[in-house]
Design goal:
- This protein is mainly α and 368 residues long.
- The protein is 75% helix and 3% strand.
- The chain is built from 15 helices and 2 strands.
- The chain has a two-stranded antiparallel ribbon with strand order 1-2.
- Strand 1 and strand 2 form a beta hairpin.
- Helix 3 packs across helix 7 and helix 7 runs antiparallel to helix 8.
- The chain is globular.
- It starts with 19 loop residues before the first helix and ends with a helix.
Length: 368
Amino acid sequence: MEFTGEMSTLPPPDIRGMTKPVVTTACAWYHIGIRVIVGGFLVIFGLLGNSLTLAIVSRMRSKPSSMHMLFYLVIADCFILGIFGPMAVVRPVLDLSGLASASHNLHIIGIACLSPVGNVVNLVIILLTVAVTWQRYISVHNPHKAKIYTSAYASKIIALSCMVFSLLFHLPNICEFQLRLTQDGQLQMIKAEFAKSRIYYIVYNLVLYYLITYILPVIALVMMAGALVKNLCDHKKMTSGQNSASNKAREDLTILVIVVAVIFIICQSFNPTRKILMHFFEPYPMHLQCGGSLFYFGPLYLISYLVNSACNFLVFLCCAKGFKKKVRNFLFGQSRVGPQSSVASTSESNNAPLSHKASNIKIKCEIL
């Protein structure tokens, strides 16, 4: 992922005959609306929502199979919001404040330092999204193997493998630029010799990068999500809408995973689209500047990452009814387990094995 001047509000000379003050004012307000207001809201809402999700899920006594991987996915989303959020919000504020030198330095730091770190975390999110969909696919289509591949231990191994693979894959990207401070106090990027190679650009930056970060994950998600949707429809036809609480909880979890996959595909599609446009609109940075053909498209791909990482809390609220109840209980301090009467205690002691099994089913149903 490269950052190539999406934040510039200075108009190129004589673009469509528009005068500089009008274009600059319109562009400034566009950046305020999209990057500062929308981007800032997504960062704040996403961090608060994801933090609340982590607090609630971590307190669950028993978690469904896919919930372990969703937990790690929410953690990665918090890191994306913390990395890409300041890149989306802070620089337009500096531009509007007249701090051109600070804005320039932040842009250079974003390209050379923050962007590679964000790429590492984003690939972790991509792999975890595929993993959680795969786990749900296994649970639905091969339930006898679910305990092996969807356990807490297996989820930790998969999450750790995703982090290691992402870090190793992005090592060239991390070492691609070096920073140098000029005499006038501005940062300058120096590209490494290996990064200047045409072969490196084609093989790594184009073929491998988009094959691993978009094409293969999207193909896998479309196939697995399609199979989950088909199974969900078939199951509803067979049960004719008469589901037990446990079956309803499983359906809610399946719907949640499908929605997460669909949102992921939509949001992750902006960056490949941007890459295609770079070949049709040259020079690309000029078309991104105020008054250029792609000015209004420029910030959207960065905002799309924030949307993908900020909306999971809403997805949990809309798709998991039990989670909505837990949020209400967590915020307003309602107890999770009500008081037991002596009669209930006696009954429970007399039917311990059956009662224990039923309580486990009830706990898992309440999660969703």
